[in-house]
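Morning F.,

Quick status update on the modeling queue. The single chain you submitted on Monday has been processed. Sequence for confirmation:
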Amino acid sequence: MDHLDAALKNRQLEIFYEPLLSVTEIETELYDLGLYLKDENIRITHANPGEVLGKNLLAGKLDDWAIENSLQVIGEFYNQGLEYRALLPVFACSLLDKRFSGHIDKALTEHYAVLGHVNKPNKKIWTAEDPVEITQPGLQQVQVHPKIGFTFANAMRAFLRADPDIILIGEMRDKETASIGVEASLTGHLVLSTLHTNSAPETISRLLDLGLDRVNFSDALLGILAQRLMRTLCADCKEPYQPEQKELDHLIDQYGRESFAELGIDAHSVELCRAKGCSSCPGLGYRGRVGIHEFLLGTPQLQGLIYRNAGMEAIYEQAISDGMRTLKQDGIAKIFGGLSDYSQLLNVTAE
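C-alpha cells below.
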C-alpha cells in the first residue's frame, strides 16, 4: 500500500499496478464495483479486476480540501461560478447537476460543497445516496437499497413526509424519481441531483425523454451544472512557451472569436504551458485534475422554450445568449491560465 499512500498525499487520482496487493485482507465494504475503506477515508474502485498478474486500481481519496474549496475554484475560473452560489438560497426550484461517466465522482464533491454552503442549523437537509461516501454534520443521510425495494423514488416520498428544506438525490434514473423531484421543488424544496448526459442543454432533453411534464419542469428548473475532469500539467515541471500563430488562432477559433475578448487576454503576448516530465509526476508531465464546467441558467426565456417544446438548437443558443460558457470554452480558458494543454481538453470533450 506504500505506492498508494504516497500518491494520495498529493491528491492524485491515478492508476496503480501492484501485483502483491491483496485487497481481500483489508476490512472493507463492497459497493458495486468498488471498495470503500472507512478507516482511511479512501474509496478504491477496480479498474480491471481479475487480471492474471494482479489488480489495477483506480484510487480516489475523498478529499476534505476539495469539498471545502470546490465552489471557490469554480468561481475563480468560471465567470458564472458566483451566480451558481447566489442561486443556492432559493428553495422554490430544482437544481439539476450532471456528472460525466468515467471519472471518480466529482459531482459528489460539488454536491457536498453546495450542501456545506447551505448547511445551517435552521435548515433541514436529507440525502439519498448509493452509496453514502461522505458524511457531513447536520445532514440526515440515507443509503438506498434497490434490492429490498428502497429506491430513490421511495426515499423521496419518505423525505417529503419529513418536510425538509433541501433534498439531495444521488441520481435521477427514472421518470418516477425525476417527477417526484420536480413536484418537490414546486412545493418549496431545493432539490439537487445528478444525471448522465453529454452537456448541460442535453440534460433538458434527457429529462423530458424520461416523461416529465414540460410545464412543471420548466417552472422548476433553476440551473444545470455540467462538468468533466481534465488532467492538469505538473506544477513542478510545466514548461512555459510562446505558441505559434497557427496554434493560437486554433484556440481562439475553438473558443469563438466573438467571445474571446471576454477572457481579457492579449493575444500578442500570450504564454502557454506544455508537459515536460519530472520525478514529481513521475515523468508524465501531468499531475492531478481540474474541473471544466458548463453552467446553464433556468432563465424565463429558456423556461419559455422548454414550455413551447423548442428544439435543442434553440435551447443551446438561448443558453449561450444567457451567458453560458461551454465545456470546451471553459477548458480553453484554463489552458490560457497555464493549467493544462489542448490535448487533454480533447480527451474529455471530443465527441
